[in-house]
UniProtKB/TrEMBL annotation:
<feature type="domain" description="NADH:quinone oxidoreductase/Mrp antiporter transmembrane">
    <location>
        <begin position="54"/>
        <end position="320"/>
    </location>
</feature>
<feature type="transmembrane region" description="Helical">
    <location>
        <begin position="273"/>
        <end position="296"/>
    </location>
</feature>
<dbReference type="GO" id="GO:0008137">
    <property type="term" value="F:NADH dehydrogenase (ubiquinone) activity"/>
</dbReference>
<feature type="transmembrane region" description="Helical">
    <location>
        <begin position="303"/>
        <end position="326"/>
    </location>
</feature>
<feature type="transmembrane region" description="Helical">
    <location>
        <begin position="118"/>
        <end position="141"/>
    </location>
</feature>
<feature type="transmembrane region" description="Helical">
    <location>
        <begin position="148"/>
        <end position="168"/>
    </location>
</feature>
<dbReference type="Pfam" id="PF00361">
    <property type="entry name" value="Proton_antipo_M"/>
</dbReference>
<feature type="transmembrane region" description="Helical">
    <location>
        <begin position="180"/>
        <end position="203"/>
    </location>
</feature>
<dbReference type="InterPro" id="IPR001750">
    <property type="entry name" value="ND/Mrp_TM"/>
</dbReference>
<dbReference type="GO" id="GO:0015990">
    <property type="term" value="P:electron transport coupled proton transport"/>
</dbReference>
<feature type="transmembrane region" description="Helical">
    <location>
        <begin position="61"/>
        <end position="79"/>
    </location>
</feature>
<dbReference type="GO" id="GO:0042773">
    <property type="term" value="P:ATP synthesis coupled electron transport"/>
</dbReference>
<feature type="transmembrane region" description="Helical">
    <location>
        <begin position="35"/>
        <end position="55"/>
    </location>
</feature>
<dbReference type="GO" id="GO:0003954">
    <property type="term" value="F:NADH dehydrogenase activity"/>
</dbReference>
<feature type="transmembrane region" description="Helical">
    <location>
        <begin position="91"/>
        <end position="112"/>
    </location>
</feature>
<keyword id="KW-0472">Membrane</keyword>
<dbReference type="GO" id="GO:0016020">
    <property type="term" value="C:membrane"/>
</dbReference>
């Protein structure tokens, strides 16, 4: 089905995918590894491209399974024990979402009831597992063992947005209880990931935690009733995070493949613009005025100041403050 959600997600997928495929050859310097990785990334892009235009649970379930399979092979690319462990953790975590989609399909077919407790539980599991919401954050951190081109395309901008896409596409199946629990777990995810980003030392995991943080905001925006704000947040974050991951990958390569936040440095071949690009992308992701996700967050905060409760406003501003803190770090 061609609509605003499908076109918006496909636009983000096209922009991130076209650059990530070129970056794949740059990262591996034209070696045989890039030749092996390229078809896997194309397979992922094709599967995701078909999925975003699907409008039935059965069709979505089929390509949902393909996404889990191709992400397993992408994480397993380096073929060592740590990659095997990470790919299995990711596969098992994604199984929760896959089984939940199947359970939703069976429940609707048999009972035609979208307000029951079982259906609500299935719906929550689908959105939370694919969006890496708390307590399903660990699979995204493990997925960072994949090559940097894979992380920049799959695990920082597109695959982790599958849960948001599902919520936007099948929002008509949601209920008051689903919205309540999603907002609760999303704000919990935002605070937990922000605190972890402040204390973690692994640079790729810090960027991954930032992904969980920003994707949770997309769900909050849609629960508040604004589809356009949610899509704006999703697309802006996806593009900025994809390009940020590529620049971080170059930075780590020039630092002797170090992933420690205190062990990276700007080499002689970094160029004068790399620090400026990274600074611009980080400021766009944290919501600095008139950059990146500022427009979506500013609209929500303006609405809450005039019509929200004190507790909700306090949590929102705490989340915003923590995002500035870990971005500066």
């Amino acid at each position: 089905m061609i609509d605003l959600v499908g076109v918006g997600c496909f636009f983000m997928l096209f922009c991130c995918g076209s650059v990530a495929l070129v970056y794949c050859f740059h990262y591996f310097m034209g070696s045989f590894s890039s030749v092996l990785l390229f078809p896997l990334m194309v397979w992922f892009l094709g599967t995701m491209g078909v999925l975003v235009f699907s409008s039935s649970l059965l069709f979505s379930l089929i390509f949902w399974e393909y996404l889990g399979l191709v992400s397993f092979f992408l994480i397993l690319f380096y073929a060592n024990m740590s990659s095997l462990r990470a790919s299995l953790v990711t596969l098992f975590a994604s199984r929760f979402g896959d089984v939940s989609v199947f359970g939703m399909l069976m429940w609707v077919s048999w009972w035609a009831d979208v307000s029951g407790l079982v259906f609500v539980l299935f719906y929550l599991l689908v959105v939370m597992t694919k969006s890496a919401c708390f307590p399903f954050i660990s699979w995204l951190l493990e997925a960072m063992r994949a090559p940097t081109p894979v992380s920049s395309l799959v695990h920082s901008s597109t695959l982790v947005a599958a849960g948001v896409w599902f919520f936007l596409r099948y929002g008509c199946l949601s209920s008051v209880w689903v919205d309540f629990f999603l907002v609760f777990f999303c704000f919990l995810t935002i605070i937990v990931t922000a605190v972890c980003s402040i204390v973690f030392m692994d640079l790729k995991k810090i960027v991954a935690l930032s992904t969980c943080n920003n994707v949770s905001w997309c769900i909050v925006f849609f629960v508040c009733g604004d589809l356009c704000l949610s899509l704006l947040q999703l697309i802006t974050h996806g593009l900025c995070k994809c390009y940020l991951f590529m620049s971080v990958g170059d930075l780590m390569s020039q630092s002797g493949s170090s992933q420690s936040s205190v062990g990276v440095y700007l080499g002689r071949y970094s160029g004068r613009f790399l620090p400026l690009v990274q600074g611009f992308l980080v400021l766009s992701l944290c919501g600095l005025p008139f950059l990146g996700v500022f427009f979506s967050k500013h609209s929500l905060f303006s609405l809450l100041l005039y019509g929200g409760g004190f507790g909700l406003v306090l949590v929102c501003f705490l989340s915003l403050f923590l995002s500035y803190v870990y971005s500066v770090r």
